[in-house]
Amino acid sequence: xxxxxxxxxxxxxxxxxxxxxxxxxxxxxxxxxxxxxxxxxxxxxxxxxxxxxxxxxxxxxxxxxxxxxxxxxxxxxxxxxxxxxxxxxxxxxxxxxxxxxxxxxxxxxxxxxxxxxxxxxxxxxxxxxxxxxxxxxxxxxxxxxxxxxxxxxxxxxxxxxxxxxxxxxxxxxxxxxxxxxxxxxxxxxxxxxxxxxxxxxxxxxxxxxxxxxxxxxxxxxxxxxxxxxxxxxxxxxxxxxxxxxxxxxxxxxxxxxxxxxxxxxxxxxxx
Length: 271
Known about the structure:
Elements: H1 2-37, E1 53-58, H2 69-86, E2 90-96, H3 98-106, E3 111-115, H4 124-139, E4 145-155, E5 158-167, H5 171-180, H6 194-270
Parallel strand pairs: 1-2, 1-4, 2-3
Antiparallel strand pairs: 4-5
């Protein structure tokens, strides 16, 4: 399992590296369009004055045997739930992965929707399905805020639990992209209007951010599983050595006892 996880981890890292340039260009394009559109009111950008319902999206794996990978995400998601309830807000869960689904159901929490079957190898279509459901719930007023909780991949030994606000789309994302966007010194003509283009780009941004989180989680899961299996193999080896030593000592003691009994019997006969 360690070797399989190691091979899958390498593939997951390649997918993340291939996706990052697309995500960067996506931010630049959205920032430039937003700048051209000016101050606009779009559903995915609208920040509610009063947040009554929070949607929490924990991203876990479909399987265990990965150390604390799943537990630490769920622990953080439930901490976010407690904070929201302390603020007088209701919480709805949209889960990704069988571990999150089963835990939320076991605790009898409000599970609005769940997705399973792609935690180790997510596709963009999976992120699209999740993004569509979350955006529909937000625009429809079912939830007033959407946060995603997942493991960000740092290294095979380190996975960082990350909480990201997905909806409403943070204005910092556009402002940061504007600051980082290269200045080409070229005036662009937009067809159709920038507002209409931005309206089409915002859902794609949500899909991209979810896809990034799914890929980060997939790489983190393989890294955690590889480390957990290595530790399990090491612990099993140490246990085998300890038990072998104990067995040899017991065997040696038994042989010694039999020799002493034979010697004692021979002494008794000779006497």
